[in-house]
């Protein structure tokens, strides 16, 4: 009996989590990928720079992988590409903007010119093996975001990408509701849709609103205006620039990613900066204060960002002062609340007027609220539905919405990364798993930091480390030097000399059991030291530092 | 010329920060303290258990300290007492509830019976040296919270404590607006007031609302109900218990602090539990599911709390399952958002219905919003105003409100801990500073972890540590053993053997410059190792682990 052909949808990232979005669509011997993002490390991932999806499955099936399709140019959708393309160099389809940002990334990784980047426009159709892919315009917090309709021999899979329904987008390019309607009119087998804001009732507001707020604050500001925003929110920057132009202010740019993205966006025509408006950050001080706007990174309070440095008075070119209006045009991403709050406090202390979340309409989300999700579900009327791009609680809420709209519960899949969702023309089911997870990037190392290293980092961070070194004779196990005890992150040594002296005595006592006899193995001695010292320190301090005994053996015969 | 007498207000904690509230009021040779709280460590204070105010100033003036006055029994107002009383054992005034909680704390510190705890009621007046102190009822998220009017020979200082204006409090004891009015009618020299919610417009809602929400969720719930809340929010627990009683459910309690506070509160008559309603957690499984309510700790997602353990399936007695309704009756404190979110995801995954912030009215704040702050300011009409209990941005906002109500800007002080605010009958000014800051408690150590230890912890957490040990001859500097390199939190060693081998060669090269010559000091050799290894590792990995060279010297002559 011939095996019935199937479509497999295999999420490798972005499901049950926020970030590192990546989904494989497989039909027979052909795989296409939707996005290849990164995630930023949680605080428990100490010292980690970025997190990639584990795409072992793709490496194992590298001959089947045909292409990567990008929905848009945010880091959580494109940030994994340099790493991925190094291993599996396939063509990448995306908007000119997304590819412009990818290109810059590849250059940073010294990979320019090594990959095929194929620009597509909304309503473009490309054929990749058995897949016919249509790109569909949506609104989002970066221009030229696109949903994908992937037509396969068994039916159509629609992935909304990140979207919102903005009826008055800044660039005038309205989301292609007609195309979604016509797909729904035909037949959608599987729909995957953005769940980020599934817990929010109503509609997400239009980006235009932020422009109106800028207008208001520009009217009120007597001196300099500093606007912090995500660099990739080009429509927001555009609105800031146009408002600046209207109020006869020059614009300077601070922060590496802001400079980079502005360069790409204006080069590609996504951003219009009136002639002569852009000035160098060094020129700011030479202009009257009411003629200046500074666009800066740091809206998330990132420790090394330009705004953070300004707030702490160590930005080389910009000193925040009374009279300045600072607009933080963003909402803190969960986990960043305290960082952002600290910046706000600092800016207030410097005398600035600070406009921030809660105090005004200076930010709107780029993701759809419940009414938009319902509209999209009702337009597409899919047979099977997979809520994606969200933590479990959001997926769950999105699933509930879908059920309220009449999609049967058994046709809705709340999944996890690595699960294989298998569809035929008339069936959908969970069928097995592939490897999935996270790969940590620390400096140049990709994947060389794992759970053991993280556990050690956490232990040292919480309790510090105590290193005990003894030099012993290889034959007799006589102590030749030491024990020396050094600690880091445990107690301030100068004030704890008595404790350390006593600790040394404990180690000596442990050694006395063994040394001079030559009948204890090194491992046994180490264990004795750990045990005695750990017990003693816990009694004295109620702390459990990591204890690391090191024994150096000297062969007196040969020396 | 005799020195003019003054009142000094000296905030030692809680100003420009949330937590560890403590304020000294000094007149001549007499000091009284308002509150003695602790703060919970920020994530940058790795491994720290709690944070105390630095009260060096009080220790230096211990003979002047007369008493501690407690506004209420929250940790950030009483948590520092066991440490403080160990050093300066003065009487403590507070409500019966606050003192009941203090008493329990002192027992935990094996200090029972060693301090004088003096219960007071609203409208009580006590005389302490030159101070006449009136206790005034306010509403807050713990019963029997009180403001203080401190009458001094130079005028009256009013400290609102933490408060809100709840016209329909659960216990029926309404905030004593009449007393505040009569104080304002006379004359208030200095007012200190709660700024926590100064950024929120309007009024804070009544605690009763939460009771109404409980009512609704109890009506809907078919099976067990689990409610997570702050243990100290006794009115909320009371409402949960009464609602449980109405719907004929038994109540069980999970989590140490919940058990403790319930015991104190019911013993002292603050909490009424109908006969036979309270059951043991072990009995829960024997009852029909629709007859059970579990009150639990963990509303902030604290890693070791009962709710967290239930969510992760490792609570000994309670297993969360489909059909359960879990109500998280709290808002995440800034910094806890991700912890709480993780719990919510986990509970959803277990199939529970989770009611949480944003999805409903299951929490109200205990602090006053702008309209309440204005009312209090207008009732008291102080000559001088010090916004307290808040971060800078909140103090700033509160100051703005006061100015809008007609208090001159120069009579409003946005201060910092350690500043001395000095008042006479007709003047107020900033006059000097006393030591202030934070004292870190780690295990049994109070103050033995300082910035150096924290910096080392952070460095090891981010980058890991590399220990290089060499045993050398004392005279000749010949290498007798090693160099051995061990690392923790750096790379997973088994996969990095080549890197470590090369690192060892670098160390050997550095040693070769020195050894066998006896002309390099140990410090110089260590510096060489650090330099060579640091450079090499950064080039290879772009990481900068802490490098710790340890040299053991063996005196071959004597050995």
UniProtKB/TrEMBL annotation, chains A, B:
<feature type="binding site">
    <location>
        <position position="442"/>
    </location>
    <ligand>
        <name>Ca(2+)</name>
    </ligand>
</feature>
<dbReference type="Pfam" id="PF07521">
    <property type="entry name" value="RMMBL"/>
</dbReference>
<dbReference type="Pfam" id="PF00753">
    <property type="entry name" value="Lactamase_B"/>
</dbReference>
<dbReference type="Pfam" id="PF17770">
    <property type="entry name" value="RNase_J_C"/>
</dbReference>
<feature type="binding site">
    <location>
        <position position="76"/>
    </location>
    <ligand>
        <name>Zn(2+)</name>
    </ligand>
</feature>
<keyword id="KW-0255">Endonuclease</keyword>
<feature type="binding site">
    <location>
        <position position="72"/>
    </location>
    <ligand>
        <name>Zn(2+)</name>
    </ligand>
</feature>
<feature type="domain" description="Metallo-beta-lactamase">
    <location>
        <begin position="19"/>
        <end position="214"/>
    </location>
</feature>
<comment type="function">
    <text>An RNase that has 5'-3' exonuclease and possibly endonuclease activity. Involved in maturation of rRNA and in some organisms also mRNA maturation and/or decay.</text>
</comment>
<feature type="binding site">
    <location>
        <begin position="363"/>
        <end position="367"/>
    </location>
    <ligand>
        <name>substrate</name>
    </ligand>
</feature>
<feature type="binding site">
    <location>
        <position position="74"/>
    </location>
    <ligand>
        <name>Zn(2+)</name>
    </ligand>
</feature>
<comment type="similarity">
    <text>Belongs to the metallo-beta-lactamase superfamily. RNA-metabolizing metallo-beta-lactamase-like family. Bacterial RNase J subfamily.</text>
</comment>
<keyword id="KW-0269">Exonuclease</keyword>
<feature type="active site" description="Proton acceptor">
    <location>
        <position position="367"/>
    </location>
</feature>
<keyword id="KW-0479">Metal-binding</keyword>
<dbReference type="GO" id="GO:0004534">
    <property type="term" value="F:5'-3' RNA exonuclease activity"/>
</dbReference>
<dbReference type="GO" id="GO:0008270">
    <property type="term" value="F:zinc ion binding"/>
</dbReference>
<feature type="binding site">
    <location>
        <begin position="231"/>
        <end position="233"/>
    </location>
    <ligand>
        <name>substrate</name>
    </ligand>
</feature>
<keyword id="KW-0862">Zinc</keyword>
<dbReference type="GO" id="GO:0004521">
    <property type="term" value="F:RNA endonuclease activity"/>
</dbReference>
<keyword id="KW-0694">RNA-binding</keyword>
<dbReference type="GO" id="GO:0003723">
    <property type="term" value="F:RNA binding"/>
</dbReference>
<dbReference type="InterPro" id="IPR030854">
    <property type="entry name" value="RNase_J_bac"/>
</dbReference>
<keyword id="KW-0540">Nuclease</keyword>
<feature type="binding site">
    <location>
        <position position="47"/>
    </location>
    <ligand>
        <name>Ca(2+)</name>
    </ligand>
</feature>
<dbReference type="Pfam" id="PF22505">
    <property type="entry name" value="RNase_J_b_CASP"/>
</dbReference>
<dbReference type="InterPro" id="IPR004613">
    <property type="entry name" value="RNase_J"/>
</dbReference>
<protein>
    <recommendedName>
        <fullName>Ribonuclease J</fullName>
        <ecNumber>3.1.-.-</ecNumber>
    </recommendedName>
</protein>
<dbReference type="InterPro" id="IPR001279">
    <property type="entry name" value="Metallo-B-lactamas"/>
</dbReference>
<dbReference type="InterPro" id="IPR036866">
    <property type="entry name" value="RibonucZ/Hydroxyglut_hydro"/>
</dbReference>
<feature type="binding site">
    <location>
        <position position="389"/>
    </location>
    <ligand>
        <name>Zn(2+)</name>
    </ligand>
</feature>
<keyword id="KW-0963">Cytoplasm</keyword>
<dbReference type="GO" id="GO:0006364">
    <property type="term" value="P:rRNA processing"/>
</dbReference>
<dbReference type="InterPro" id="IPR011108">
    <property type="entry name" value="RMMBL"/>
</dbReference>
<feature type="binding site">
    <location>
        <position position="77"/>
    </location>
    <ligand>
        <name>Zn(2+)</name>
    </ligand>
</feature>
<feature type="active site" description="Proton donor">
    <location>
        <position position="194"/>
    </location>
</feature>
<comment type="subunit">
    <text>Homodimer, may be a subunit of the RNA degradosome.</text>
</comment>
<keyword id="KW-0378">Hydrolase</keyword>
<feature type="binding site">
    <location>
        <position position="162"/>
    </location>
    <ligand>
        <name>Zn(2+)</name>
    </ligand>
</feature>
<feature type="binding site">
    <location>
        <position position="140"/>
    </location>
    <ligand>
        <name>Zn(2+)</name>
    </ligand>
</feature>
<feature type="binding site">
    <location>
        <position position="49"/>
    </location>
    <ligand>
        <name>Ca(2+)</name>
    </ligand>
</feature>
<dbReference type="InterPro" id="IPR055132">
    <property type="entry name" value="RNase_J_b_CASP"/>
</dbReference>
């Amino acid at each position: 009996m011939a095996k019935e052909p199937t479509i497999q949808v295999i999420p490798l990232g972005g499901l049950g989590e926020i970030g590192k979005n990546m989904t494989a669509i497989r039909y027979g011997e052909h795989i296409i990928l939707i996005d290849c993002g990164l995630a930023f490390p949680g605080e428990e991932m100490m010292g980690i720079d970025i997190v990639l999806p584990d795409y072992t499955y793709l490496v194992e099936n590298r001959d089947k992988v045909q292409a990567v399709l990008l929905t848009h140019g945010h880091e959580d959708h494109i940030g994994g590409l340099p790493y991925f393309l190094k291993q599996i160099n396939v063509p990448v389809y995306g908007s000119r903007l997304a590819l412009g940002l990818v290109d810059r990334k590849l250059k940073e990784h010294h990979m320019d010119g090594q990959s095929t980047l194929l620009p597509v426009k909304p309503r473009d159709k490309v054929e990749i093996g058995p897949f016919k892919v249509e790109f569909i315009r949506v609104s989002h917090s970066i221009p030229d975001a696109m949903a994908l309709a992937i037509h396969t021999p068994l039916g159509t899979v629609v992935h909304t990408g990140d979207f919102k329904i903005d009826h008055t987008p800044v660039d005038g390019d309205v989301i292609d509701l007609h195309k979604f309607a016509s797909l729904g009119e035909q037949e959608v087998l599987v729909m995957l849709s953005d769940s980020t804001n599934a817990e929010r009732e109503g509609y997400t507001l239009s980006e235009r609103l932020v422009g109106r707020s800028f207008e208001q604050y520009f009217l009120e500001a007597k001196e300099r205006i500093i606007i912090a925003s995500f660099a990739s929110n080009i429509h927001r920057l555009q609105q800031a620039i146009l408002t600046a132009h209207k109020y006869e202010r020059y614009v300077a740019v601070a922060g590496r990613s802001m400079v980079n993205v502005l360069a790409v966006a204006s080069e590609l025509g996504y951003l219009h900066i009136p002639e002569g408006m852009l000035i160098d950050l060094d020129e700011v001080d030479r202009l009257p204060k009411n003629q200046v706007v500074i666009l800066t990174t740091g809206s998330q309070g990132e420790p090394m960002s330009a705004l953070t440095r300004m707030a702490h008075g160590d930005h080389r070119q910009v000193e925040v002062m009374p009279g300045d209006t600072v607009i933080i045009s963003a909402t803190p991403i969960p986990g960043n609340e305290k960082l952002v709050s600290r910046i706000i406090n600092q800016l207030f202390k410097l005398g600035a007027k600070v406009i921030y979340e809660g105090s005004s309409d200076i930010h709107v989300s780029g993701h759809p609220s419940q009414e938009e999700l319902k509209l999209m579900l009702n337009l597409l009327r899919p047979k099977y539905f997979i809520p994606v791009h969200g933590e479990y609680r959001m997926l769950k809420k999105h699933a509930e919405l879908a059920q309220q709209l009449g999609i049967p519960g058994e046709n809705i899949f709340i999944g996890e990364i690595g699960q294989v969702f298998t569809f035929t023309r008339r069936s959908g089911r969970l069928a097995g798993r592939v490897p999935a997870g996270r790969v940590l990037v620390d400096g140049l190392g990709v994947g060389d930091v794992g759970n053991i290293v993280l556990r050690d980092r956490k232990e040292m961070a919480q309790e510090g480390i105590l290193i005990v070194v003894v030099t012993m004779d290889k034959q007799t196990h006589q102590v030749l030097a030491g024990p020396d005890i050094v600690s880091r992150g445990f107690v301030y040594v100068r004030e704890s000399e008595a404790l350390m002296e006593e600790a040394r005595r404990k180690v000596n006592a442990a050694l006395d059991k063994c040394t001079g006899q030559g009948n204890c193995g090194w491992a046994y001695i180490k264990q004795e030291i750990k045990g005695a010292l750990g017990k003693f320190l816990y009694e004295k301090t109620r702390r459990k530092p990591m204890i690391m005994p090191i024994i150096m053996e000297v062969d007196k015969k040969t020396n």
